[in-house]
Amino acid sequence: MKFLHKNVSETQIRLKDRLWLYIFSYIVLFLLIVPSLVVIPMSFSASQYLEFPPKEWSLRWYENYFFSWKVENGFNDWMQATWTSVKVAVLTIFVAVPVGTMAAYGLVNGNSRISKMLFPIFISPMMVPSILVAIGLFYFFVQLKLVGSVLGLVLGHSLVAMPLVLIIVFSALKNYDMNQEKVARSLGATRFRAFREITLPQIKFSLVSSALIAFLTSFDEVIISLFVAGGDNSTITRSMFLALRDQIDPTIAAISTILIIISSGLLIIMQVTGAKENKR
Amino acid sequence: MSGIIAEKLNEQGLQRVASKERLTFFGLTLPYLLIVVALIIIPVGWLFYLSFIGRDGSFSFENYERMTKSRAYIRIFITTFKISILTTLICAVIGYPLSYFMSQLSRKWANICMIGVLIPFWTSLLVRTYAWLVLLQKKGLLNNIAIDIGLISEPIKFVHNTTGTLIGMVHIMLPFLILPLYANMRSIDRDCLKAASSLGATPTRAFWTVFFPLSVPGLLAGLLIVFVLCLGFYVTPAILGGGRVIMAAMKISSNIELYFSWGAASALGVVLLIVTSVILFIASKLVSMDQLGNRSAK
């Protein structure tokens, strides 16, 4: 047990003196990760009731998710909702990433006083409580007849995704030497060409990760969808929320499992591209 | 003579180019500005206006008066603050040691632990809330285990009450506290601790007089972010609270969905916005704004 007496910090604290910290930390990390994973075995249960561990296994909840085309209570059409979510999330990338990138470029290069003034306004969608954003949008979209439309959802989701894009691209451009563009322009390139051929390749990975984040933000968004989506255009999160509030349907465990796989997949892609960018 | 004129003209030309440049840069931010103004500033401004419109359609303070008089509203305010403060404190008590632990590890191991913090961060809020519902309910995993090992004889009700709401909210908010705190702790110069111990401080004393004060900005940023997010939280309390824990956001939503009472909902929303803004304003005085932004985006 000699290792317990090893010094583990600058202040000569010994391992045995803070064994509690190690144990505590591992327990917390365990509790952070594992609870979400219980839905995976649950989703393969044959029982209608939630029991853990499941007594019998089946794929019926996946079947229910993939093949439930009939509308039962107005929100059971899972595939339709999934399709809307995917559509909206992809379109959100195409709004949030260009708009956010342009703004970041403008803020980095523009007058620093104006930039300082604009920055808090630009990240306000993140600061204003989302319930307020949601009912504000709802009220506004009722007048414009955008409630229940894909356009309304894309606009709402872009609003919350844009600040994230802005922050990521902004910090990437801050670390980038803008003089490289000046060199290109002194050699006769237009500003746009200089951006496209010199700057863009160098901030590519930040753009990719901001696109992934925009996708995930839209895909996971609940509150705005709850108010703005409706009719044929319910999103998957809205349907899940309504189903959760009213009854416990094990189909949700199956959907949750799929969502966990999607978000872990995106996280891994992001870590890998991030690591690549750090290496450069 | 002509040289001076040429120089002057050149200078004017450059200035014109420079101001044109600035205009271009400002122009690039316009689409963003337009979306934010159209979708946040105008709608929220509208709600602000609606909050001063009474039932009969005329200007009045009745929506705000109701809030100070009605018992239901006072109870909602108390619940909202109680849950938010408790969640924030529990997050601090759990998150501080964990961040400290991670900051002491080598980069490689810290990054591995960081995945543990990031996975829940990226997992859908609904999925995590649902998972807790599965775990904590009467016939859930936790009760089953506790009964099997003979800890309890009757299942305990963990969900559809304050306990369940707190467990779910702490789980969801913890990464928001850990990320800024960990970043801050990483940046603390370890040599300060060495200096303290070489001057005779015990490890405990070195921690409390050197390390802890240096970690306060990160802790504060994390605490404020968590508190503000808790104040406006809707999804988790709505599901894990089972209708028994009513927070401000839920009241706003039910005012609209059930009672179509825009005035009352707006007034509550305005109060929520003001409280949030005041806290964020204080936060921005304590830690720089874009740091806050950076942190919550990670």
List the helices and strands and how they pair.
The complex is a heterodimer of chains A (280) and B (298).
Chain A lengths: L18 H19 L1 H5 L16 H8 L10 H32 L2 H11 L1 H4 L2 H15 L5 H25 L4 H8 L4 H12 L1 H17 L2 H6 L7 H11 L4 H29 L1
Helix pairs in contact in A: 3-14, 4-5, 4-8, 4-11, 4-13, 8-11, 9-10, 11-14
Chain B lengths: L1 H49 L11 H8 L1 H34 L2 H16 L2 H12 L4 H8 L13 H25 L3 H9 L4 H29 L3 H6 L7 H10 L4 H25 L2 H9 L1
Q: Can you describe this structure in just a few lines?
A:
The complex is a heterodimer of chains A (280) and B (298). Chain A has 280 residues and is mainly α. In chain A, 72% of the residues lie in helices and 0% in strands.
Describe the fold and architecture:
The complex is a heterodimer of chains A (280) and B (298). Chain A has 14 helices and no strands. By secondary structure, chain A is mainly alpha-helical. Chain A folds into two domains: 1-31, no CATH class; 76-279, Orthogonal Bundle (MetI-like fold). The model of chain A has no long low-confidence stretch (mean pLDDT 85). By secondary structure, chain B is mainly alpha-helical. Chain B has two domains: 1-50; 70-297, MetI-like fold (Orthogonal Bundle), CATH 1.10.3720. Helices cover 81% and strands 0% of the residues of chain B. Chain B has 13 helices and no strands. Chain B has helices at residues 2-50, 62-69, 71-104, 107-122, 125-136, 141-148, 162-186, 190-198, 203-231, 235-240, 248-257, 262-286, 289-297. In chain B, helix 3 runs parallel beside helix 7 (162-186). The longest helix of chain B is centred in the N-terminal third of the chain and has 49 residues, at 2-50. Chain B is flat, with a radius of gyration of 26 Å. Mean pLDDT of chain B is 86; it is low at 289-298.
